[in-house]
């Protein structure tokens, strides 16, 4: 456990023989939820918060962890990479030992070094960029979701086997997550001999993509893959339809947000996307699904059950380690399997899941989604 004292406090503690860690004095075990609670992708933060809140409520109702109740503390990073270290340092200064988040890959990558250096255990339920963990030799960073180099090949295999396009256009938002997964899809398609005639970035936050749509039309692409989040995908779909672009679009889990319907309108019908498998259909999760619905929360979004699983992994790790010490909890997680709503999960040395399944879904104009058949 980290010990953070001023010199005066430390002197007093040693003088009295009563030096205590902040964890030993705390009435609760705090878990920070780090993610976007403001900005254009707040719903992803809300998805994660729903998962964490539901898990904490159930864990606390069952007696808590080591005799203590869990407490969630939400901290906003706006999905901004520059806010990642700011939030991470706030977590450290507030003496919070566990984090579920960050949500967006860019902010996550920017925050991880602070957590690992300061001995804070972080589990992201949504950041899929390989750069979160690759080449870092971190001990304190984990995921409860797959990586883009798992999601990208899953999307590419579907495109190759089911769509069988002749000419693919790939667009991305120039960010860690969007460009990373777009590059993964491009690589896999090219390995299979599929022509990628167009690979270009757009500026996230722009409102007029008519120029890129004109370029798409000129390539003669019969399929478009977009790497990024739902606000830009929604505009591409709507503005493409308005300009007579008649091709199928596909994206990653970042486009799987009900808010896309308000942006794209009817043009969203039939959009394809990769998402974590629908764990709400697992009969063993019936009680958890009911707990979500009893609180009028949606268990079926992209990140609710991965966030629930991240929280449960932290709680089970504390129980397994037998002590509220994030370093020992991390060691326990690296060495053990944890039962969660997304299945029995384990991690490799760098904190990535040893196995994770992405499925292909079709999105509908009423906001629902169905597994592609």
From TrEMBL:
The keyword Signal applies. Pfam families: Peripla_BP_6. Residues 28-367 form the Leucine-binding protein domain. It comes from the Bacteria. Residues 1-26 form the signal peptide. Gene3D superfamilies: 3.40.50.2300. One of its GO terms (biological process) is amino acid transport. Keywords: Amino-acid transport, Signal, Transport. Belongs to the leucine-binding protein family. This is Leucine ABC transporter subunit substrate-binding protein LivK. It comes from Pollutimonas nitritireducens. The lineage of its organism: Bacteria, Pseudomonadati, Pseudomonadota, Betaproteobacteria, Burkholderiales.
